Amino acid sequence: MTGTLDAVERKLAVPPAASEWPTYAPRFEALLAESLDAAGVPDWLRRWSELSAELYETASKLSTHADLHTDAPDIQQRYQTFLAELMPSAERADQALKEKLLSVPGYVPDARFALNYRRFRDAAALFREANVELGVTHEQQKNRHSVITGNQSVLLGGEKLTIPQAKQRLDSPDREAREAAWRALSASNLQVAPELDQVMLDLIVTRWTLARNADEATYLDYQWKALDRVDYSPADCRAFHDAVQGEVVPILAELMKGVADTLGLDAIRPWDYNRNNLLDVQRRAPLAPFQDGGQLETLAEQAFSGLDHDLAARFGYMRSNGLLDLESRPGKMTHAYCQYFPTRNEPFVLMNVVGTAEDVRVLFHEVGHAFHGFYSGDTQPLVWNRWSPTEFVEIPSMAMEFLTLDHLGHVFSPEELARYRRSQLQGVVSFLPWAAQMDAFQHWLYAEAPSTVTVAELDAKWLELDQTFHSFVNWDGLDVAARAKGWQYYHIFHVPFYYIEYAMCYLAAVGIWRGAQRDPAAALEGYKSALRLGSAVSVPELYRAAGVEFRFDREHIRGLMTFLKEQLGQGEATGGGTADRSH
């Protein structure tokens, strides 16, 4: 175990008592028993917030520790015990406190708390006792996905690799090497597919039951309320799917045709695309800007120093305090994310780096989330006002991918930086069809498909959507199951309906970058100002603070695609680098 990993383990340590309900129960009971009038609400809220932050931090640390050790039964069991024995009591206590707050006569929340007061009211109305224990089951089912995929490995050329290590081979300029890697990954995915099929079927039953218990007609209706989606409708999402199909898919298909023609490929096969990897038409070796996590941290800190002194200081704090775990290793969940520990206002980034330029992008993305945690935590004392609604939460991360583009001269040569920049721009074009496909699949699954949907129906719907959004990929002669199981993706299991937000925020991030080209200082200040607002203002207000509009309609998408095509036209003629999105 490295010294860095030792620091991470110390950061994630949770004393035994902290994961037991008796540690928290007396304080919840005292808050509930307290006589409360309108004048006393602010101080009462502060104490409830502090208690909630402690509980949230314990849950976050236990969850993250379990993700770092999917192969450790004792660590997994501790987290599962916490979910089963503590969280139901905490959820009931939270509901009781919400009801107490909502019943205080004459209380009018101030402007900073008004939105969350309304969210408390809506959440209290959605609460059902029957869903408390069922919520534990839901979390346990999701964790089964983490354990299965965290212990997944790939056998390639006699070598046993983690999933991120195998995916790295997909960037090879050698087509035979890419194909071998793709086939090995597909074999590994198909090996675990039956287990994941069953996990998904169990989740669907649970999710529909949650909805029916709450008197909602569909799980879409239930989750729409649970996610507090008040600024747009399911119809707006369906219009987005159509807009992407009409405005973005043709651009992506044209781009990939240019790649195939330049490389002399008979067709774009899955190993030539694999979701969003765009081939380098000059057949150059993949960019390899670092060798290990420590080097990646160093180059990132230098980039942040060039961008903004305070951002660099925040990242330096993360480096020094065990808040980064970047290396890929067996038994570690393969997804990247940013966690948050609110009592000390500390974000934590988990990744699986293997030395690619894509790792550089993903680190900037996840640390953008971390900056959101830092800045909203600085200015928003109540824990519920930190971060933001989901429709904004990806802007800090995606905008940081763009804002760092002009501060990577120490990482890449001018030619390499042009490749990296082009990859970033191409990635927006290639990501939007994937996002639309993911969102469309979930709208079908939870609003149109029956609650008794079969695995065969899941596979068939995914194939239909993949043909709509990625028809330029030629799958002739290949096992159709390898394509049909594309829905077996992290967000489908763990965060249902949370995906269109990536598209919304990518569009906004492009807008922020466009503004930064005119006035870098103003764009950065708008970015930081929006982060400080946390969840205290509405989604449209957050977008305006960042200098962009909350829009994802066809006209808006067309305008941004025109801008991206212009930017791409300023670079290499057809392509360069890779653009594998990690979302």
TrEMBL record:
Its cofactor is Zn(2+). Gene3D superfamilies: 1.10.1370.30. Keywords: Hydrolase, Metal-binding, Metalloprotease, Protease, Zinc. GO terms for biological process: peptide metabolic process; proteolysis. Binds 1 zinc ion. One of its GO terms (molecular function) is metal ion binding. Residues 171-558 form the Peptidase M3A/M3B catalytic domain. Pfam families: Peptidase_M3. Belongs to the peptidase M3 family. This is Oligoendopeptidase F.
